[in-house]
Design goal:
Shape: globular
Helix content: 40-55%
Bound molecules: adenosine-5'-diphosphate, guanosine-5'-monophosphate
Order of helices and strands: EHEEEHEEHEHEHHEHH
Largest sheet: 5 strands, parallel
CATH superfamily of one domain: P-loop containing nucleotide triphosphate hydrolases
Strand content: 15-25%
CATH class of one domain: Alpha Beta
Structural class: alpha/beta
Number of strands: 9
Radius of gyration: 17 Å
CATH architecture of one domain: 3-Layer(aba) Sandwich
């Protein structure tokens, strides 16, 4: 019997290092994939359509919302982002584990719809370090950085209902913590029964 894929839902204030951390664990676990979201945001330098995001127009995004194509969607920092239902259906059917890099509003929508997932919140070590990272990333204009800093406190206040919190201070330690969570979640009894239940009559 094939087990369902696990959804690792990862949220963080922008600049905490979520993308960098997720890329690292995607390299470690070959069976783990990044859930590619749809967004109305313009691509940053180096971002590839279909790999980082599906970059769509506002009209196309609204058409998808009206068509009920999203499992969750939200407006974040002035742009729309959403996870397609068909991305999650594919994970369920093919047993593919996914990392969903989505904001707290989207994570909450999935929780309220009782979509099974492991909710992980990434914190920066401090607000001053968060600003340093946003500025150091050199990809957003100063007004965009201000919007993201202004939104950080509200996002961080949501950390309390997540299953796990990781403080991304020393990068290797944070990678190890995220890696450990992924390994532990694979050993859950409900999943292991599907893998070894027949053999041992469990
Ligand atoms: P997010 O996806 O959460 O917005 P990024 O992954 O783009 O954040 O990281 C923001 C910046 O911080 C990047 O320049 C990244 O290299 C840097 N960064 C990530 N983790 C750490 C860390 N533990 N220590 C120092 N800098 C980090
Ligand atoms: P960025 O513009 O930096 O790539 O992402 C901005 C924010 O949008 C991040 O907090 C990211 O997690 C969030 N985000 C990306 N994709 C989705 C999505 O599909 N749904 C929701 N709700 N948020 C998303």
């Amino acid at each position: 019997m094939q087990r369902q894929g696990i959804l690792f839902i990862v949220s963080a204030p922008s600049g905490a290092g979520k993308t960098t951390l997720c890329r690292e664990v995607l390299d470690i676990f070959p069976g783990l994939r990044h859930s590619v979201s749809f967004t109305t945001r313009a691509p940053r330098n180096g971002e590839v359509h279909g790999r980082d995001y599906f970059f769509v127009s506002k009209d196309e995004f609204e058409r998808m919302v009206r068509g009920g194509e999203f499992a969750e969607w939200a407006e974040v920092h002035g742009n729309c982002y959403g996870t397609a239902l068909r991305t999650l259906a594919e994970s369920r059917e093919k047993g593919i584990d996914l990392i969903l890099d989505i904001d707290c509003q989207g994570a909450l929508q999935l929780k309220e719809k009782q979509v099974a997932g492991v909710n992980i919140f990434i914190l920066p070590p401090s607000y001053s370090e968060l600003r340093r990272r946003l500025e150091g990333r050199d990809s957003d204009k100063p007004d965009v950085i201000e919007t993201r800093m202004n939104n950080a406190a509200a996002e961080i206040s949501q950390a309390r209902w997540y299953d796990y919190i990781i403080v991304n201070d020393q990068f290797p330690k944070a990678v190890e913590e995220l890696r450990s969570i992924i390994i532990a979640e694979h050993q859950r009894t409900a999943l292991m029964l599907a893998a070894v239940g027949n053999e041992f009559k469990l």
